[in-house]
Amino acid sequence: MTISNETKVGALTAIAIVLLILGFNFLKGKNIGGNNTHYFAVFTDIQGLANSNPVVINGKQVGNINETDGGKDMRRIVVDINMTEDVIIPADAVAVINKSLLGNVQLDIRLGNSANSLKSKDTIKTILSDNLIGDAMKKLDPVLLQVTNATKSLDTLLGNVNGIFDPNAKNNIKGMLDNLNKTTASLAVSSASLQGMLNAQTGALAKTLDNVSSFTGALKSNNDKLSQTMGNVATATDKFSKLDFEKTLTTLNATVEDLKNAIGKMSSNQGTLGLLLNDTKLYNNLNATSNKINLLLDDVRIHPKRYVNVSVFGKKDKSTPLSVPLPDTVNAPYLINQ
User: Quick one: average pLDDT of 215-234?
Assistant: First the structure.
């Protein structure tokens, strides 16, 4: 049975379309292996969560965001979660949107302890994302957390006695509290930077001390070579100091003066070299001599019998000699009336 070319082209086209669709879905993060488990989560603010963002459980990606739909009023945004891993989700699990400091957004699913599990297309409970600054302060230093709590207590106390003060005093206290909050936030950031700098393993100060230690060790191991080098430099400096630079400069100045006088004489009409360079008589004489030689050569070429008479049957050429050279050379024309 012979398959026509049209059938082959159609089959290849269909295969290419299928591969294109599968590849497009794969790049979008959809599972093309047959696992179509979906869960839903409802948020009032998805914080930039977009399609194909990862879904993570305990730091491992188990799925991705299929799509988000907020309807027309955008008050409740439904997030469709596509699971790429076969994972059992407890019924009391919660979903939270986490946004890193670099702007990466992901959906974290925190597992619960319920014996019951969610089924495909069930809705997972949601909670608000964590306060990253608060967690950072708890990890940085307990003292900073206590200062923050004390600031909040002070703010509450001042709010209770707020009616005692006049408007000017109220504004001053409010400004003081704002400055105190800014100072606390700056202190938290500075503490984090200082802790990273003082880290014994990866801190910038530790690396700097390691570099200084390596440098001083290298200096210690090359102490003899450095001493020898410094001695050589001292010897060379002593030799330079003993050189008679003044005498050398005097000789150089005299040489330059002699050269200047020689060039001056060459530019004038004094001396043989000056006359050769500046007097046109020698040029005119050489030009006239060259012209006469050209005339003689042309006459010898045109009337050779006048100068060489070796012919047995011929007779001597008695024609009139040339008075003007023949213009038979294009690239070197003859000069007349020289």
Answer: 83
Distance CA(177)–CA(155), nearest Å, equals: 7
> CA 42, CA 78: separation in Å to the nearest integer?
5
The backbone torsions φ and ψ at residue 317, rounded to the nearest 5 degrees and listed phi first, read -80, 120
Give the per-residue pLDDT at 122.
94
**Nearest-5° Cα angle at 305, 304 to 308:** 85
Q: Is the CB of residue 76 less than 8 Å from the CB of residue 128? A: no
Q: CB-hemisphere CA count at 13 Å for 209?
A: 10
Angle between helices 204-221 and 223-242 (to 10 degrees): 60
Q: What CA–CA distance (Å, rounded) separates 51 from 68?
A: 7
CB 124 within 8 A of CB 95: yes
Q: Where are the domains of the chain?
A: 1-30, 33-130, 134-198
Q: Is the pTM of this model over 0.90?
A: no
pLDDT digit string, tens, across residues 282-294:
777 788 788 888 8
Residue 148: name the closest of 127, 177, 169 by CA: 177
- The 3 state secondary structure assigned to 267-285 is HCCCHHHHHHHHCCHHHHH
Distance in angstroms (rounded) separating the CA atoms of residues 47 and 6: 52
Q: Cα(52)–Cα(82) distance, rounded to whole angstroms?
A: 9
